[in-house]
Specification:
heterotetramer; C: mainly alpha; 11 helices; globular; D: mainly alpha; two-stranded antiparallel ribbon
Chain lengths: 221, 497, 305, 662
């Protein structure tokens, strides 16, 4: 029953979908839609893991996929939504670059990744393809962190990077030892929570509703 | 034995959080740190000859990590000792309440715990987690004062470190993948399909069979990932902010141990690299990062107006020096780098602690607001000046010794560019750091500051400072046999023969 | 016998001064005092009582002796009529210059001792002149010394042949100017005035009187004659005796006095045809001759003997 | 013999510890200990001079960190120099430090400073040398900033920075030597240094000049000297100026002459040129100084120049195979090293007691002190006469030797050397004349005439211990001046081991004789002659003039009512002609600003300032530092405070790595 997966290149489609959702961020204007995009991204990720699990039967991969779905697909988005809903004022993402320009740049980044990782013939077939995608997703996540102003977008960018890393992990090696996965996910949750705490503090101290972090320039030199 | 090391800080942290009165917390803190230091002695001595394991090889200690452990527990103890006076002062001033005090000590020991965990964890993924958790804990400590600046610093710290460390995780995955490919070749296929390993000791065994290309890619990600944490320029930017905002003992720990802890992660991958085909690749990268760090740091030191930030930049410079030492790759280069790790830990801690006394006295961290500290604080001021001389690499202090060793190694390799740039940057740094601290030490103190240090109140911190000062001088003129032995065996581990 | 040739200088130096004064007077169409006048002055001064300023210290008192003695020791070092003299072992021409400098040093100090403005002015100006003149003299000496391969004056004067290389001509000119400046003569200094704007040497010794003044004046005469003799030994040693044979000595003393007279005449002419220059024009004059001296040295090195 | 060494060092360390323990209660007996230690080490030095090289001590801790102390005749000579000065300075310090703020620390630093200097001249390998060298620098730094004032802190910073730059060059040169010889040990380096490539030799030569020249204070690396020496307490300044800069000379001798051996001729020429420039500029700046300690510091610069003239001549002669002459020249250099140590030590000590009594360093505020402080005045006079190289004091002999070595006929010497040497002699003559002027001022203004301020009027003579300290050195000035032959005999082994031939200046009966040029010098004879003549003169005057009659009155005041101190020549006025004449060197900045009540009719006050431009700071060092700062300022942009930028760095770094390293 595995072969239909390879037949229909489903996994490729899924991973491309992940990349596309990541890229789509560049053109989205409202934080809610960002969170949606992230949710979809996470669902696709868990789906991919699920297929990997189907393809070569490792039970802990099912676990991993459900775990991913639960944490990244459900828990985090709702947590973020709750934080966002506390922001009374605008939910528009303020950016330094225009949509088109940021799209172009992310395209360039993807190109660079494909070129540079194309050199080594060390990762083969499907894995190499997904590796490139995941590195691309990570860099795009970083890129949107760079270009967006509010703290929330930074958290989201970080989460996209994490997704990219997970993608790489599962595509390359059919998963880590379970404890590692658990640990990483736990770390992720902790990060997000602590960041939420600091975000609230930023909002208080800098008295900016959207927690714009381009005000955080007292420390320089 | 290793188990003790892991659990003592945890327990201490828990107790510190539970106990309610100030004295109690302080004693627990002190005893916890002391216990950790004492408990560390046995595994260190044991692991000197052969690697020791704990809990299904999940944790291990070889000569290298025991050497690092020694530095860690020592600095941790000194910092804990110093915290009593520092935080006590803040407490008396009413800057913080009892609950903050409890949090502080709890986080302090959690911080120590995570570093110990990182040091002894055999699994590179656990190592990654430990480093990540240090970020989490310390970010809370950096934001401890809840002022505008400290929140900002904490935010930058957590964002930058987390982002970069994400790449580190990718690197870890890549290494894991490389190891699976090895097992693929050797047909070790289990029921669950292909399995790799994350155990560093095993990885070291099979490193020579790994695919060098994969390792290279992994190394790039690891270098960026842990490099940011270690404060290698140009991805060092969190460091000055966090150091300048954290409470002084924490700054000391950050600068003295944490950044080196991240550096440890890089070195471990370099070891794998040394096992595989070409070492020059790794060495060049390290050399470049090291020199860039030195250069950038020297520039910032020259034009600095806040002494805690200045010390932070000097840490960047010295991480750069260690990177250069490792990057030179010869025996003496690595020897020097490791010796420098210890020396820098001692001297930088000393500087943070003594300037901490200055900060409490003048309560500012601005250089041009501090004058005549050597008159106001005879002991701390003098020691501070000596420490500055030491950090700037003057004999007869210890830092000179390691820097000289590294320079000699560079010459042995015929690496003239490194040699020349090293000397140039070191001289510039001397000028900058010495100018600023000279201004702080001499001149006329403001009239509102009362002279003299009340010995009985600050005996703890003074003791800590003096101990460090003595070490600084002694290690400049003499290297004890056991230290030399540890260094030698650690270098052997790194060079892989 | 040959040990006493320095006595010649000591005895005849006032005479030389007298002759110069006389010649100057004649050049200026005056009769002038007798050529023995300096002797009369000295004896008179020796007999007069001294007036000391209360401000002065022991420096003021020892200076005349140090100046006089050092000048005489300098006189002992140079061959006057014969080059055969064991006083050469005391030192060479460089030592001689430094011994003269010793006297100058103390004279300048004594000038400051009385605490008057004149003293300071005189001593300061004296120093200015000396820092320009001394190196000049040294350079001329180097020229002849390198030629002779020694700084021993006897060795310099030994070769009778009257060397006339370009370098020597230059050195000779420079040395003449140096002598003029160092003996405090017009155009550098005016020995006959006490006008505070012009005087250098006189300013320094303003506070002195009686026998101390006599000592200083006398040593001034001696120094002047030493410089003349040095000039003769260095540039026109022709005719100087090498041993203590009577005939040789007689001849050489005759020759010596002739050369001396020529120099004296030259000085007189220069003094009566030139005018005293401003203090800050002195450097330009001396600087010019300094360049001459340097050139002489360079030409010697480049062109050779 | 080594026991002497240990005994001495132990005494020094004991002194250090003692003065730390009883900080303020220490009755200066720490200095007694050091003076005794100095005696032992002086003996040790003399023994070293007359013995083959001895290994004193060698501890090997790690292959990198080995302490090797080895003594040979050269270090013996320098040990002797250090000990002599230390001895008298210690005695002096007993009185000088009385009632000083935290003098215990001073005593401690004092002893450690001296020990570190001994360590430098005795160190037998690179690491030992570097450690002792920098210890010396650091301790002296702390002595410079001893009175924690802003001003001295600035001076200290300049000093520390410059010596550290020098240190960088020294480290570089040693490591280059190590690279090409494969040795860290001086003996090994010297053995292998013969077959170094010329380029390397040249590089090492240049580095040594810069590195050690900074410490020795050659122009233009001298700028720290006039800042640092005045800032230190006077007993320390006399050590720094008398001894420490000589350690710089030791470094030059050890590396260039001893280790590299006979080099190409242009080395010597370069050294002579440096020496000439240094001596002339040094004394020129000294002449117009108003701060007496700065004046002395500049004089030290001049004398370093003179020492270098001797050394340079010796190198030229050696590279032309004229070994005997080169030995003479080296003798001149070493002799002047010794002499300068002695009389500069004396001058700084007496200046110390001057400042100690008047509480000012400004010449304009002194005057007439010869009556209040007769001993100090006398010793200062002796020091001045010696430094002006006037006969039968010690400076005279060594300068005379320097003249001889510069003029000793060069047969087959290249044109440049031919020109350089006599012009060097000319420079020596010029600086000699200037020195006379400078010290007429330096002695005359403070000691003679009338007191210029209350500082001068209520000064009083220093305690006996200080006077003793000065007296010893004054005596030495005379002895070294009168008995040059014996002195030269004493350190001729050092000369022969430097120039590599067994040649000793034939000098008996107090006469130095240089057979090559058939010249002699006998200060003793000069002295005897002078005494004889003195007696004669006194008798003669008595005969001619009869009994002397003296009346006392005021100085002649041009018929004005009375002479006030303000009418005297000031130090500034004294040197005004110099500023006028050499204004192309001084670039004097004169400014007269008048304050009017009713412009332009009624004048309230006129003030006149006259400074000279600090040429080297302004045109050499400031541009360099400005350049570095401008670069730093540009780099500072990196840390702009925007986290987005920082994240950008991470991205860019990663992309670059992916592109170029992968």
């Amino acid at each position: 029953m595995k072969d239909w997966i390879d037949l229909l290149y489903i996994m490729d489609f899924v991973s491309i979908g992940i990349l596309l959702t990541a890229i789509s961020i560049n053109s989205l204007g409202r934080i809610e839609s960002w969170i949606k995009a992230y949710m979809i991204n996470s669902w696709l990720l868990s789906l991919l893991i699920f297929f990997v699990a189907v393809k070569n039967p490792e039970h802990h991969l099912y676990l991993a996929s459900t775990l991913t779905f639960a944490s990244k697909g459900i828990l985090l988005p709702f947590f973020l939504k709750s934080i966002v809903s506390q922001m009374k004022k605008t939910h528009v993402v303020e950016t330094y670059l225009s949509t088109s320009l940021s799209l172009i740049i992310s395209g360039i980044i993807i190109a660079i990744v494909y070129v540079s990782l194309g050199k080594g013939i060390f990762v083969t077939g499907f894995s190499s393809f997904v590796l490139k995608i995941s590195v691309a997703v990570i860099l795009i996540g970083l890129f949107i962190m760079i270009t967006r102003k509010s703290a929330m977008t930074q958290i989201l960018g970080l989460l996209f990077m994490e997704n990219g890393v997970f993608l790489a992990g599962f595509s390359l090696t059919f998963g880590m030892p379970t404890i590692v996965e658990l640990g990483v996910v736990f770390d992720l949750l902790m990060i997000v929570i602590i960041m939420g705490v600091f975000m609230i503090q930023i909002k208080q101290k800098f008295s900016s509703e959207a927690a714009d972090i381009d005000q955080l320039t007292n420390l320089k030199g | 034995m290793i188990g003790l090391l892991i659990f003592i800080p945890l327990i201490t942290a828990a107790l510190c959080y539970l106990v309610k009165n100030r004295r109690g917390i302080e004693y627990i803190n002190l005893f916890g740190a002391a216990a950790l230091a004492i408990a560390a002695i046995f595994p260190i001595t044991a692991s000197h000859s052969e690697t020791i394991y704990f809990f299904r090889e999940m944790f291990f200690m070889d000569a290298f990590s025991s050497y690092f452990m020694m530095v860690l527990v020592f600095i941790a103890f000194v910092a804990a000792m110093y915290s009593i006076d520092y935080m006590g002062h803040e407490f008396k001033e009413g800057v913080i309440g009892i609950s903050e005090l409890r949090q502080y000590y709890a986080f302090l020991h959690l911080f120590i715990f995570s570093m110990v965990f990182a040091t002894v964890s055999n699994n590179i993924a656990f190592f990654w987690m430990a480093i990540e958790s240090t970020t989490l804990v310390t970010s809370l400590l950096v934001g401890f004062y809840r002022s505008k600046e400290s929140v900002e610093a904490a935010w930058k710290y957590i964002i930058l470190c987390t982002v970069s460390i994400t790449f580190g995780l990718l690197g870890v995955f890549l290494i894991y993948y490389a190891s699976t490919s090895v097992y693929e070749d050797t047909y070790q296929v289990s029921r669950l399909g292909i399995i790799g390993t994350l155990k560093w000791t095993e990885l070291r065994e099979i490193a020579h069979e790994m695919n060098p290309e994969t390792l290279k890619l992994a190394f790039i990600f690891i270098l960026v990932g842990y490099g940011a944490k270690a404060g290698l320029a140009p991805i060092h930017n969190w460091l000055p902010d966090a150091h300048s905002q954290a409470p002084t003992p924490i700054s000391a720990l950050l600068s003295g141990v944490l950044i080196k802890c991240a550096f440890l992660g890089i070195v471990r991958i370099v070891i794998l690299g040394n096992m595989s085909l070409d070492t020059s690749y790794y060495n060049h990268l390290l050399l470049i990062f090291g020199l860039v760090s030195m250069g950038i740091a020297s520039a910032f030191i020259l034009t600095q107006n806040n002494f805690k930030r200045l010390l932070a930049y000097s840490s960047i410079e010295h991480i750069g020096i260690m990177a250069i030492g490792i990057g030179i790759g010869s025996f003496w280069g690595i020897y020097g780098a490791l010796l420098h790790l210890l020396n820098h830990a001692i001297v930088k801690t000393l500087l943070f602690l003594s300037t901490g006394r200055v900060r409490l006295k003048y309560n500012t961290t601005m250089i041009d607001k501090v004058r005549g500290s050597i008159v106001v604080l005879p002991v701390s001021g003098t020691v501070m000046l000596l420490g500055v001389l030491a950090i700037a690499g003057c004999p007869p202090f210890n830092v000179f010794l390691s820097e000289f060793t590294i320079l000699k190694a560079a010459i042995d390799k015929g690496n003239w560019v490194t040699f020349a740039l090293f000397i140039l940057f070191a001289t510039v740094v001397f000028g900058g750091i010495f100018y600023h601290f000279g201004n702080m030490a001499f001149g006329k103190p403001g009239t509102d500051i009362e002279k003299g240090e009340k010995k009985k109140e600050y005996k703890m911190s003074l003791m800590a400072i003096i101990v460090l000062a003595v070490l600084m001088l002694v290690l400049g003129l003499y290297i004890p046999g056991f230290l030399d032995g540890m260094l030698n065996s650690s270098v052997k581990i790194i060079t892989g023969n | 016998m040959e040990y006493l040739q320095f006595v010649i200088i000591i005895i005849f130096s006032p005479l030389v001064q007298g002759i110069i004064k006389k010649l100057k007077a004649n050049c200026q169409g005056r009769v002038g005092a007798s050529i023995l006048q300096p002797y009369y002055d000295l004896i008179k001064l020796f007999k007069k009582e001294m007036a000391f300023s209360r401000v002065t210290s022991w420096i003021f008192r020892v200076t005349p002796f140090i100046v006089f003695i050092s000048t005489i020791v300098a006189a002992m070092m140079i061959p006057v009529i014969t080059t055969k003299s064991s006083f050469g072992l005391m030192g060479d021409v460089i030592a001689l210059i430094y011994i003269l400098a010793l006297g100058r040093f103390f004279l300048a100090l004594a000038a400051l001792d009385a605490g008057t403005a004149f003293g300071g002015e005189g001593s300061s100006r004296e120093m200015i002149v000396s820092i320009l003149v001394e190196p000049m003299i040294m350079l001329c000496i180097f020229t002849v010394a390198i030629t002779a391969g020694s700084t021993n004056i006897a060795m310099i004067a030994e070769p009778q042949n009257f060397i006339f290389s370009p370098s020597h001509v230059l050195a000779l000119l420079a040395f003449l100017i140096a002598i003029i400046a160092d003996t405090g003569r017009v155009p550098v200094d005016n020995p006959d005035t006490h006008l505070e704007l012009t005087m250098i040497h006189e300013g320094m010794i303003l506070e002195y009187s009686g026998r101390y003044l006599a000592l200083i004046e006398w040593s001034h005469y001696i120094k002047q004659m030493i410089l003349f003799t040095l000039f003769i030994d260095m540039f026109v040693p022709l005719g100087i005796a090498h041993d203590t044979g009577t005939t040789g000595l007689i001849i050489s003393s005759g020759v010596y006095s002739l050369k001396l007279l020529f120099l004296v005449g030259f000085m007189a002419v220069v003094e009566s045809t030139r005018a005293k220059v401003r203090i800050f024009q002195i450097p330009t004059i001396l600087g010019g001759s300094f360049v001459l001296a340097v050139l002489s040295l360079l030409t010697l090195i480049m062109v050779g003997k | 013999m080594i026991s002497f060494f240990y005994l001495g060092i132990i005494l020094f360390l004991a002194g250090a510890i003692a003065s730390l323990i009883f900080n303020q209660r220490a009755k200066g007996f720490a200095y007694i200990l050091t003076s005794i230690g100095a005696i032992f080490l002086a003996i040790f030095g003399v023994l070293l001079l007359s013995s083959p090289p001895v290994n004193i001590l060698s501890i090997s801790i790690t292959p990198i960190l080995e302490f090797v102390f080895r003594g040979d005749t050269i270090s013996g000579f320098f040990i002797l120099v250090i000990s002599v000065i230390t001895f008298s300075v210690s005695i002096y310090s007993v009185g000088y430090t009385k009632g000083m703020a935290n003098k215990g620390v001073l005593g401690f630093l004092f002893s450690i400073f001296i020990v570190s200097m001994y360590a430098v001249v005795l160190s037998g390998n690179v690491i030992t040398f570097l450690i002792s060298w920098e210890t010396m620098s650091i301790v002296s730094y702390f002595l410079v900033v001893f009175d924690t004032q802003e001003k001295s802190a600035r001076a200290g910073f300049i000093y520390a920075l410059m010596t550290h730059v020098g240190m960088a060059f020294i480290i570089a040169l040693f490591l280059i030597l190590y690279k090409y010889t494969g040795h860290m040990d001086f003996a090994g380096i010297k053995a292998a240094a013969g077959n170094l490539p010329d380029a390397v030799k040249t590089m090492i030569f240049i580095f040594a000049i810069i590195g050690f020249g900074t410490k020795a204070g050659i122009v233009p690396l001298h700028t720290w000297l006039p800042e640092a020496h005045p800032a230190a307490p006077s007993n320390i300044s006399s050590l720094m100026s008398g001894v420490m800069i000589k350690v710089g000379i030791y470094g030059i001798l050890r590396i260039i002459v001893d280790i590299l051996g006979v080099g190409p001729e242009w080395w010597g020429t370069v050294i002579i040129i440096i020496g000439a420039v240094t001596s002339v500029l040094g004394i020129l700046y000294a002449t117009v100084e108003r701060d007496i300690k700065r004046l002395l510091a500049y004089c030290s610069v001049e004398n370093i120049g003179i020492i270098l003239l001797g050394i340079g001549a010796s190198m030229i002669l050696a590279s032309n195979g004229l070994y005997k002459l080169s030995a003479i020249a080296m003798t001149a250099g070493l002799y002047h090293t010794l002499n300068h140590a002695v009389y500069k030590g004396l001058l700084f000590l007496s200046t110390g007691s001057l400042v100690h009594a008047t509480h000012t360093k400004n010449l304009e505020e002194m005057g007439g002190l010869i009556k209040l402080m007769p001993y100090t005045a006398f010793f200062f006079l002796i020091g001045s006469v010696s430094i002006c190289a006037l006969p039968f004091f010690n400076g005279f002999v060594s300068e005379w030797l320097t003249y001889q070595s510069l003029l000793s006929n060069f047969q087959d010497v290249s044109a440049t050397a031919k020109v350089a040497a006599p012009l060097g002699a000319a420079a020596l003559a010029f600086s000699g004349a200037l020195a006379v002027a400078c010290f007429v001022k330096a002695f005359g203004i403070p000691f003679l005439g009338l007191p210029r301020s209350h500082h001068a009027t209520d000064a009083k003579e220093s305690p006996p211990s200080m006077i003793t300290g000065m007296g010893i050195l004054a005596l030495l000035c005379l002895v070294l001046g009168i008995f040059p032959g014996h002195t030269i005999k004493l350190f001729s082994p050092a000369v022969s081991s430097l120039t590599g031939i067994e040649y000793m200046l034939p000098s008996g009966k107090g006469i130095i004789h240089i057979s090559k040029t058939a010249v002699d010098l006998s200060p003793l004879a000069i002295l005897v002659a002078m005494i004889a003549i003195f007696v004669a003169v006194v008798v003669l005057i008595r005969i001619v003039g009869g009994k002397s009659r003296v009346t006392h009155g005021d100085s002649w005041d041009c018929g004005m009512t009375s002479l006030t101190p303000r009418m005297q020549y000031t130090a500034t006025a004294y040197t005004n002609p110099f500023r006028r004449i050499f204004e192309k060197i001084y670039f004097p900045i004169r400014s007269v600003n008048s304050v009017y009540i009713l412009k332009p009719l009624i004048l309230k006050s006129v003030s006149y300032t006259n400074e000279i431009t600090p040429t080297f700071d302004k045109y050499l060092y400031k541009p360099i530092t400005d350049f570095i700062h401008s670069i730093a300022g540009k780099v500072k942009m990196l840390q702009s405070g925007s986290i987005h930028l920082y994240l950008g760095y991470i991205l860019i770094t990663l992309l670059l790595l992916l592109l170029f390293w992968f």
